[in-house]
Amino acid sequence: MMHYVQLYIEFIKIRILGIAEYRKAFILGVIAQFVSYFAEFFLIWVVVTRFQTINGWEAPEVLLLYGLNLCSYAIAGFFFFNPTVQLSAMIKDGTFDELLVKPLNSFWYLVCREFNSGYLSHFLLSLLVIAYSIHSLQIPLHLVNSMFLVVTLIGGSLIQGAALIITSVPAFWVVESGGLRDILFFQAKGFIRYPISIFATPIQVILTLILPYAFINFYPAQFFLDKHDFSIFNPVFQYLTPVIGIGLFCLAYLFWSVGINHYKSTGS
Question: What sections of the protein cross the membrane (predicted)?
Fold first, then answer.
């Protein structure tokens, strides 16, 4: 594993040199992303404050959901967005074959090479939103809460990274899998911008047991807020984010391995 860490550091050095060469473009890109997601944050804030509460969740509480979701997405996107989004094009034009001749694991080599530094803007905004929510709700950041926050963000990042991987692997069979990712990741994950308890029971079941996005923010947020809005599910779910994250990521990696075994080069 250490040689992957060393490889990752080398790629970071190369990317920093590239950013230094085109730093204005990088800064403008970060600002544009920040403004875009801030507009989304502001829209949610307006909606919640207009109705004062959503199923018993006040504005700072809903914004905590937003912050946890965005922060874990930023971490996952930094590592996995480019490798998964570009996979289809790489298979189509035959450049994926290059990875297979390297004396390294193809998955980890791709993750090391294709990280996306643009997610810095998402990460900074999410930290601001989380800090605002914690301050507004007067949540004490003692050792237990701080450690649980870190564990939650890591678990949520693994869930989001796993979802990106799982929705991209079908490209090994159908080549173009972008539509699947849009539906099962970006559109489906839109539900967790708000407490999932506002939706019908079948949707809650899907977001908990089939597409477990609710573990990214809804369930762990109740630990910090001391809420008991679990609907038909057990309160123990608030502690399961890291377990779900590790399990789902292992499943995603196994699915990637299956895809690699069924990969047929284009020959180009």
Answer: 25-48, 63-82, 123-141, 147-175, 196-216, 236-256
CA distances from 60 to 81, 133, 147 (A): 29, 5, 21
Q: What is the pTM of this model?
A: 0.88
Question: In DSSP terms, which residues pair with 264 in a beta bridge?
Answer: none
> Cα–Cα distance between 164 and 184 in angstroms, integer?
9
The string of pLDDT tens digits covering residues 70-105 is: 999 999 998 899 899 989 888 888 888 888 887 778
d(C-alpha 219, C-alpha 201), whole Å: 15
pLDDT digits (tens, 9 = 90+) for 241-260: 999 999 999 999 999 999 98
3-state secondary structure of 146: helix
Distance, in Å, from the CA atom of 216 to the CA atom of 245, rounded to the nearest integer, reads: 9
| Alpha carbons 146 and 122: distance in angstroms, whole number | 21
* Residue 45, token pair as written in the block: 């804030």
28 C-beta neighbours (distance < 10 Å), count: 11
Closest to 104 in 3D by CA, of 201, 181, 22, 4: 4
Task: Quote the DSSP letter at residue 195.
Answer: -
Q: Cα separation of 190 and 240, whole Å?
A: 21
54 bridge partner residues: 57
